[in-house]
Design a protein that fits this description.
Layout: H1 3-17, E1 27-34, E2 39-42, E3 49-52, E4 55-61, E5 67-73, H2 77-86, H3 89-94, E6 97-100, H4 104-113, E7 119-121, H5 123-144
Parallel strand pairs: 1-6, 6-7
Antiparallel strand pairs: 1-4, 2-3, 4-5
Length: 162
């Protein structure tokens, strides 16, 4: 028997006995992804049309090497809570921080499933909130200074001397 055959047999035997260890996630990232555009779908029973959104919730290991941990269809509290609860209590106890967008349904799910993990805004949404605050200040100052946006008082402009 050759070495490659013996090694392959040993690997098959070891793989059957050894379970893949669960990833230890310290910083969990939660965010949604939209797959395609929203669609209007007609209910065959009632004939009524309804708008369907095609969102997925993604769970990511933000600190360790695991990357994408999994997905749940939709972006509701029940779907997120179910995904987190399916990981088991030991897995949930290891999560120390949850970074996510400021979404009420995600926040409620994390509060229920991971009550001891503090919630922080992810980098993208933190920058977006800061940009919005800066835009609001610029608009307010622009409005307050000349009295209206984008216009100036013609009396303030002196005519060129000839």
């Amino acid at each position: 028997m050759s070495w490659p055959i013996a090694h392959a047999a040993w690997v098959r035997h070891a793989d059957a006995l050894l379970a893949e260890p669960e990833p230890v996630v310290v910083v969990l990232g939660i965010d949604e992804t939209r797959r395609g555009r929203a669609k209007w779908v007609q209910d065959p029973a009632s004939g009524r049309w309804r708008l369907t959104e095609r969102f997925e919730t993604n769970f990511v290991d933000l600190h360790g090497p695991e990357g994408l941990l999994g997905r749940a269809s939709g972006r509701t509290k029940s779907r997120v809570t179910a995904w987190l609860d399916a990981r088991g209590q030991a897995w949930k106890d290891a999560v120390q921080i949850v970074a996510m967008d400021p979404c009420a349904s995600y926040r409620a799910a994390v509060r229920q499933a991971l009550p001891n993990a503090p919630i922080v805004a992810d980098a993208f949404h933190l920058v977006a909130l800061a940009d919005q605050a800066l835009t609001d200040v610029r608009r307010r100052v622009t409005w307050d200074t000349p009295g209206r946006r984008g216009e100036c008082d013609l009396r303030d402009i002196s005519s060129p001397s000839s």
